[in-house]
Specification:
The structure holds 2 protein chains of 2 kinds.
Chain A: E1 6-15, E2 18-28, E3 33-38, H1 44-51, E4 59-64, E5 67-68, H2 74-80, E6 82-85, H3 97-101, E7 108-111, E8 114-117, H4 119-132, H5 149-162, E9 167-171, H6 179-194, E10 198-203, H7 206-212, E11 215-220, E12 223-229, H8 235-243, H9 246-255
Parallel strand pairs in A: 3-10, 3-11, 6-9, 9-10
Antiparallel strand pairs in A: 1-2, 1-4, 4-5, 7-8, 11-12
Helix pairs in contact in A: 5-6
Chain B: H1 2-7, H2 18-23, H3 28-45, H4 53-78, H5 86-103, H6 108-133, H7 137-160, E1 164-165, H8 168-171, H9 179-182, E2 184-185, H10 187-195, E3 216-217, H11 218-236, H12 238-248, H13 250-255, H14 260-286, E4 289-290, H15 297-307, H16 319-338, H17 345-369
Antiparallel strand pairs in B: 1-4, 2-3
The chains are: A alpha/beta, B mainly alpha.
Chain lengths: 259, 372
Amino acid sequence: MTEPIIQMKNIEKHFGSVIALAGVSVDVYPGECHCLLGDNGAGKSTFIKTMSGVHQPTHGEIYFEGKPLHFADPRDAISAGIATVHQHLAMIPLMSVSRNFFMGNEPIKKIGPMNFFDHDYANRVTMEEMRKMGINLRGPDQAVGTLSGGERQTVAIARAVHFGAKVLILDEPTSALGVRQTANVLATIDKVRKQGIAVVFITHNVRHALAVGDQFTVLNRGKTLGTAKRGEITPDELQDLMAGGQEMAQLEGSLGGTV
Amino acid sequence: MSDATTSGVDERIKQQSRLRRALIRPELGGICGTIIVFLLFLLFASDSGMFAAQGIMNWSIVSAQFMIIAVGACLLMIAGEFDLSVGSMIGFAGMMIAVFGVVLAWPMWIAILITFALCLALGALNGWIVIKTGLPSFIVTLAFLFILRGFTIYIPQTIERKTIIGGIRDAAEGDWLAPFFGAKIGQPIFQWLGDIGVIETFQRGTRAGQPVIEGIPMLVVWALLLIIVGHLLLTRTRFGNWIFASGGDAEAARNSGVPVNKVKISMFMFTAFCATVFAVCQVMEFGSAGADRGLLKEFEAIIAVVIGGALLTGGYGSVIGAALGALIFGVVQQGLFFAGVESSLFRVFLGLILLGAVILNTYIRRIITGER
């Protein structure tokens, strides 16, 4: 098996007297989709924020491509190749797709002493990348606001991939989407994985996780209950792990197994 | 799906006609407004001299004044902030020129440069307070509206015991920098146009034989320059993309590595710069600085920007649109005077145009951006 691209070893994170993470270890491999599951408050967000440089771990070590690593801020993580696509706040609806795509990384064309935004290049690349992801734009100047939620996630993912992400962290990309749009985003994750990029997929939907995941880690109350490979675990087991076993079994019973 | 992917065509996307594509742009409200206003005045005031050389120069100068402050207000509004202190800044900057150049009798170019530095610093302070406190810029700059106006009245009263300081034209005599704001250009061209009879010449008096228009005031040159620079900056540069991003969603922009605070503060400074340009041109033209100069200009600038298609909440707009908004404003204000209409009706007319343009703009913006 290949080396993990990112290793999180015994990560602890304390916020004052609150222990958000109590020793979580996860290995993420290139070309794999690692699903991070957990109920609300399980510590998923804190964990990925540690991975993307927003938080510094209280204890524990992060190895990136085999070397120990300390991110001072998210910019460090981004330049190392760890990109995060947030559920919200990823795109600006009023701006065109190509302006959004290159936001913060605008291509420059020199005309005399002046630097200009290279719109031709930006438009061409945007159309190309969108077509690769299976989204047909009316034009690169189409506003992001006219896209559906799933398409917006796809633009954000395509953007991260284009700018050289080696690890792509997706923070609940499917939680607010309909069935069809969810399928599109899951298909995008599959495409990205096949390009050799490591995907960390955060979700609390077991079905979405099972659809694309290669490995599954469940967080519960700041602790990990271990990592399972694809085929080693059933949907029911995952669901139980997430919700913390017994209580959920009782609840499910009363709901007739519909959850 | 795979079919659509390979052929690059999606059956759900209708081809838009070229006409529709050409029409659907943020400036459409401003363009329609401009056409309507010009048609109306051509119909009802064509014999009033409004479209003779002198008349054109008259409303061009008034429009240019609006344009200078509208460009600043437009870029700032797209960056997601307001500046209500523009009018007070105009009065303050003019008064500072008078204090430095006349009362203290410093060379005019030093007075102008120091005034620019002072006003840019005040603009930066506005922006800094907005960024640091997270308060709405509406409130912060409203405070500066009063603070600056207060100083503009207090300073001349304390040192000169009056609210108007004159003598600026004499003080600017022979200065190298002052003509960049107060001079007129193209005199030989207008003399020639007068000689061949294209524009009228004075028939009597000391200036007999001279054309009725001396030249184009630097105010108009500044207006055009600011529009061109502002438009290129916004649409053709990396910084322009950051302006849109900062106003569209500051948090998303920050996540993408856009220096939002820097963008916003520099736009506050640019607005202050435009206000100072306006003020310097004005005091050079009048030869005096008054404590009441620039009153209500902040609202006129914002109205011009909104007629031009910008979104009050930021992230969307056009400098060309704002310039057209300013043109509408100037033409209506002066045109009603030419047409002999009761001047109080100016506000009625302006209100109707504002409402009409904004309704049209909202409709267009929804089509473009998919807002609901």
